[in-house]
Amino acid sequence: NAGVTQTPKFQVLKTGQSMTLQCAQDMNHEYMSWYRQDPGMGLRLIHYSVGAGITDQGEVPNGYNVSRSTTEDFPLRLLSAAPSQTSVYFCASSRGTSGTDTQYFGPGTRLTVL
Amino acid sequence: KQEVTQIPAALSVPEGENLVLNCSFTDSAIYNLQWFRQDPGKGLTSLLLIQSSQREQTSGRLNASLDKSSGRSTLYIAASQPGDSATYLCAVRGVKAAGNKLTFGGGTRVLVKP
Fold first, then answer.
1. Which residues pair with A44 in a beta bridge?
2. Are the Cβ atoms of B46 and A48 closer than 8 angstroms?
3. Residues 6+ apart with CB under 8 A from B70
4. Which residues numbered 35-54 in A keep a CB inside 8 Å of some CB on B?
């Protein structure tokens, strides 16, 4: 049971480039989400999904797209990278959305946009 | 809007001393509160989840209490060890939050000196 996995671990992009951050979980969790972590800002929710085919915006969605075609995968796409998107990105999952559901986080992707 | 605060931002203790980490939140309408540990350059590891109906949760040397009416949670780590050195984050899932959104505090960076 690998839990939540993310690739790549590190990435450097130039302004305007696009890329996809991969996230997968093998726990058959319905709920998945993406956060970014910035110094002084804490972790902020970008997008989330309550199940395959269903996604919604979090508090900082601009510049990012997501899709959820399978229960296991929840990729995050940067459409045209900007220096303001330099951050550490974490994917998380939970069994559901009840008050007893622990959220599990992946190891993160450290992204630098030049 | 839910706000989560952790004071102090950093804490240094000698090995063997008990650790007391504080977390406060502004809106008491929550489903649960989670404590996480984050090692430098790593992801978040879930330590404890306390449901809104619970007063405390224990796991080994860790004990977390929750006083929802006053908007406070405390994480106690007994007999600290150098391996406990990390940043500890608390996060609340509010009733009014979209999806399974967690609102995080800024964290307390702990150093346990041998």
1. A36
2. no
3. none
4. 40, 42-43, 45, 48, 50
Type of residue at A45: L
Place of tokens 């972790």: A43
Q: Which residue, B21, B45, B56, B103, is CA-closest to A42?
A: B103
CB contact under 8 Å between A105 and B93, yes or no, is no
Q: Burial of A92 by CB count in 10 Å (0-12 exposed, 13-18 middle, 19+ buried)?
A: buried
Q: What is the mean pLDDT of residues B85-110?
A: 92
For chain B, what percent of residues have pLDDT higher than 90?
A: 91
What pLDDT is attached to residue A42? 87
Q: What is the mean pLDDT of residues A35-41?
A: 92
pLDDT at A111 over 80: yes
Q: Does the structure show a pLDDT above 80 at A1? A: no
Q: What is the C-alpha separation between B23 and B67, in angstroms, rounded?
A: 10
Do B101 and A58 lie within an 8 Å CB cutoff? yes
- Residues A43, B89: C-beta atoms closer than 8 Å: yes
